[in-house]
Amino acid sequence: MLTQETIHQMKTAHHPVAAFSYVVPKVHRGYAGQTLYVNVDAGKIETRPVTDEMKRIFVGGKGFGLWRLWHAVGPETKWNDPENELVIASGPIGGTILYPGAGKSLVVSISPLTGIVVDSNVGGHFGPLLKFAGWDALEIQGKAERDVILFIEGETGRVTIEEAPLEGVDTYPLTEQLTAMYARNEADRGNVSVISSGVGSAHTRIGCLNVSWYDPKRGKARVKQAGRGGLGTVLRDKRIKAIVVRTPGMKADSNDPADIKRIRAVGQRINREIVELDDEQNRMRRVGTAHLVEIMDDYDLLPVHNFKFGSHPDTPKINSRVWDALFTQTHPDACIYGCTMACSKGVDGYRVRTGPYAGYVVTVDGPEYETVAGCGSNLGIFNPADIIELNFYCDTYGIDTISFATLTAFVMECYEAGILNRERTGGLDLRFGNAEAAIELLHRMARGEGFGAIAGMGVRAMKAHFVEHFGADPAFVQDIGMENKGMEYSEYVTKESLAQQGGYGMTNKGAQHDEAWLIFMDMVNNQIPTFEEKAEALHYFPMWRTWFGLNGLCKLPWNDIEPADNALTDEPAKVPEHVANYVALFSGVTGQEVTKEDLITMSERVYNFQRVFNLRLGGGLRQHDAIPYRSAGPVTAEEYESRADRYDKQLRERVGLDPTGMTTAEKMAALRQYREGQYEGLIDAVYARRGWAPNGAPTLETLRKLEIDFPGVVEVVEGKL
């Protein structure tokens, strides 16, 4: 029970390590004009200016994060070196509550999973509140000697680093404690946002950051996740228990926009569309992203048993109708003020069954589609209660549900293939469908115990470990280990979408759907049949989604709700009316008149800069864009034979082979040769479209055209061409 006495005892035990006072600037045209640097080892806190060139070239959000990180680290810097940073930023549109989805924070660091740069976006209130406290970005470096909390107080202009010995680190209790501790009163809790992680982040490389917002109707602090790439692991490696910001709440004019009437007009238009059309399109306001479960199953895209299959007879047990009944539907849930999309669902009154919080009655945020598909069908688990249990513990331990699910699916297939056994797993019977074993594996990962410590390294590290210590076939584990660049795949089966294979493989940060989700364009609607059309899509859509990350925006209001006449437009996949909204939104906030082409150019600069950053850290080349074969085709005879009619037809019509009389192994080999050739052809087309050399490095001409030919950038690229 959280009491005032408990809060007082915890707060009293805080010992100030360093303090810094500043004059809180008035945000102007979306920018505070400065960033905050904190070194938790040296106790150094200082202001750094935001220049006009920073705004022009890097815009904000992840652009600012990449630029600050570039100057903080060197080519040899590793994720757990003190000089590695966590940089957190919103963007010029972040906190514009007249338009839905303007509450994103972008977090940038060197990843424990990939060894290269990672960025992850997250909802909640932190990014906007940080900006309105006077900071366009927060840059954290160093490693504290003991656990600390960083507190940013935007009302009086004060930043403190405080030793915090009494609080635990797990998100579930810690967020509640710190929200109560740092709010001036009950009404002030909505002005507090907490970034935390958990014990699982300290013992794995797949740690996530949990970012809070206060839900006054539930009377609880709730969380969203910056899940990908191990950012929570970086936070805990720095001995940071939490980051807290408090500042007076967001208002319609907090960004000091150049033309608030223009913003209000486009905001009213899309808000009306969402309210009127959502029920018939995606039901995001009712079930959130869980509406995708049955859609993916219908199109053979739902991952089942480590991405072997794309559908399952038991999917109705975990589809959106099930979650609709479990989610608390007393009001729309939004993780930022003013978002009519309101997709942040939760399960209230859940009684935890296992582990250190057994018996607690909690609100579980989600599950989202990725968690349902990953911790559900991909593990062969079709009991909603088991998925909720995994969801809760991943969040409170600070573990990414996507990486956990995909690495556990890999473990389960290795177990069933005989690579693992009870002796090697510490007694866990890790077969598909064994929810009890999956939950126990999660607890052991969080404790860094036994086989849990091995699993917590991620799929790429496990592949090497299984080969070296368990005699696994290197080719087999490479084929079924669903990771790219060290990051575990998110939850879509891509065997029949070459474009989505490229969307996973040719990313800057590893396999995730944030950059390009092209399955329906490619596989269902057949809108991009040629290499050139796929390459154009793999240029435009990553750039478009990158733009959201520069500005502090959620992508869901862009195309998860479409205008009623969108199908009649020339480019329905781009949702032209909403693109025009974003042009008006950026111009209306910043006062800088732009075109839709300008938005893509903004993203090209940052995207190519990130590619060069990866080159500097030892990645970013063609070999790093390779994908595990399971994402392109069947690895096992079981997979081939489950879709034999489809694959036999493809051999006839695409490969030009008659499969009659061929063994399954022969048919698989022929199909593999064809599909791997197709992927290599796609790489050639995409690199040419992006202005990259055949080895994957941006050309000097591309750098000059984009005005990012800074001396250090050119030096890195010249060494790779």
CATH topology of the largest domain: Aldehyde Ferredoxin Oxidoreductase,  A, domain 1
How many separate domains make up the residues?
Answer: 3
Question: Largest sheet at a glance?
Answer: 7 strands, mixed
Kindly provide the name of the CATH class of the largest domain. Answer: Alpha Beta
Polypeptide structure, described:
With 721 residues, this protein is an alpha+beta fold. It has 3 domains: 4-246, Aldehyde ferredoxin oxidoreductase, N-terminal domain (Aldehyde Ferredoxin Oxidoreductase,  A, domain 1), CATH 3.60.9.10; 260-488, Orthogonal Bundle (Aldehyde Ferredoxin Oxidoreductase Protein, subunit A, domain 2), CATH 1.10.569.10; 530-718, Aldehyde Ferredoxin Oxidoreductase Protein, subunit A, domain 3 (Orthogonal Bundle), CATH 1.10.599.10. The chain contains 29 helices and 17 strands. A hairpin with a 6-residue loop joins strand 5 and strand 6. Helix 1 (4-13) packs across helix 5 (171-182), helix 8 (260-281) packs antiparallel against helix 23 and helix 13 (384-397) runs parallel beside helix 15. The protein is globular. The N and C termini lie far apart (61 Å). The model has no long low-confidence stretch (mean pLDDT 96).
Show the helix and strand layout.
Blueprint: H1 4-13, E1 15-21, E2 34-39, E3 44-49, H2 52-58, H3 61-72, E4 86-89, E5 105-110, E6 117-122, H4 126-132, E7 137-141, E8 148-153, E9 158-163, H5 171-182, E10 192-196, H6 199-203, E11 209-215, E12 220-226, H7 231-237, E13 240-246, H8 260-281, H9 284-287, H10 292-298, H11 320-326, E14 346-351, E15 361-365, H12 369-375, H13 384-397, H14 401-416, H15 435-447, H16 451-455, H17 459-470, H18 474-480, E16 483-484, E17 487-488, H19 498-505, H20 519-524, H21 531-551, H22 556-559, H23 576-590, H24 596-616, H25 637-642, H26 644-655, H27 664-690, H28 700-705, H29 711-718
Parallel strand pairs: 2-7, 8-13
Antiparallel strand pairs: 1-9, 2-3, 4-5, 4-7, 5-6, 8-9, 10-11, 10-13, 11-12, 14-15, 16-17
Helix pairs in contact: 1-5, 2-3, 3-24, 8-23, 12-14, 13-15, 19-21, 19-27, 21-24, 21-27, 26-27
